[in-house]
Amino acid sequence: MLLPLGALEPHGVAPNGTDILAPLAIARNSAPGVNAMVAPVIAYGLTGILDAYPGSFTVPEESFRY
Hints:
Blueprint lengths: L17 H17 L26 H4 L2
């Protein structure tokens, strides 16, 4: 099972979810070669760039280690 991860961040004129599109594409392209299924994307990642904005949060690095 491949689990694509990607943080959601604002990118101006780029499509919302740019950080999700790349990991998903990589997982989909890799899955047949390793005989794996692709799990739904988890749209959270390691980023602190938006911490100063109300409503934003960061998932701690330790959460991604397990």
